């Protein structure tokens, strides 16, 4: 089936200025051609008039948890959690997210949702599943993760996640504020241990994302050659911010992608100091300085991608990148499209509107390059050429 999306303003995800009054021809699940209005060979194509709206590549949420959504949801019974995950997948696609990386779940929950969407049983974004987080005993996420306390156990845990059909591998390099007592500033694994895990994951064709709130854990992750670093809290072992320029330089050299998950750092609950854990209070105390460090990293050329870690819409993450990190609207859009796709290792498949790419497309009311509020006005969403959302309503 062919579809001509006609006369749209196009933001193609590469960072160039919007293309005015352009057509996009979709053939099956791929973008067949892009050109000025009326310039494409469109015989036999169904036509949709997109004049007055902006067409973008589908957004990529690099860090979400399908099982989560609000405080306490991690403790839902498994059957209820599965329903919650299906609901979250629908929320994501309604907000324009066409690819979502689930950054750690329980048992095979995210793989189950992934497969249900892929088979057409559910409507949602394409899911990239990290399976269960790999962590130490008493480490971040230990309750639902795969526990590994040395290099041998790390290698086995990677293999176990691959047996469980995970698409990527997540490792907790440091403690996390959501796991009391796990210590955000302390490294859970040495550089050599993380290297063993990363090499094993890469041998098996899986990329590696690493939870890093602490500086030493981040340093170890970079030394190990991981693919993406999540949160990047820069917490020193003494509880103060400790940014190491040499580590930033190594990230840049290696092409590591950073996913700052700004939505979680700037969520309303993070301003309710009394409700925070001891580790969260430490991280909240240096939030603005940490954001300034991220801005410096971005200006140095480190690739930033978009991930929420919450069930805020992806638009919230882009708004924070602009208001707090200092990116332009176009730079934030690139982070959530092309650069997130590169972070996934799928820059040749998704992330930009180009001939041959997968037809993951979002139509917005207005022009988000000049009015960020347009990010929340999702008119239509196509996933692999199939219409999934019309005026905020999810099909199926």
Overall description:
The chain has 396 residues and is α/β, with parallel strands linked by helices. It has two domains: 2-57 and 351-394, Roll (Urease, subunit C, domain 1), CATH 2.30.40; 59-344, TIM Barrel (Alpha-Beta Barrel), CATH 3.20.20. It is 31% helix and 24% strand. The protein has twelve helices and 19 strands. It has helices at residues 78-94, 109-118, 151-163, 191-203, 215-224, 245-254, 262-265, 278-285, 287-300, 314-323, 329-336, 338-344, and strands at residues 2-10, 19-27, 30-36, 46-49, 53-57, 59-64, 97-102, 126-129, 134-135, 146-147, 169-172, 208-214, 228-235, 257-259, 303-304, 361-365, 378-383, 386-390, 393-394. Strands 1, 2, 3, 4, 5, 16, 17, 18 and 19 form a nine-stranded mixed β-sheet that branches. It has a five-stranded parallel β-sheet with strand order 11-12-13-14-15. A three-stranded parallel β-sheet has the order 6-7-8, with helices on both faces. Helix 1 links the parallel strand 6 (59-64) and strand 7 (97-102). Helix 3 runs parallel beside helix 4 (191-203). The longest helix has 17 residues, at 78-94. The protein is globular. The chain starts with a strand and ends with a strand.
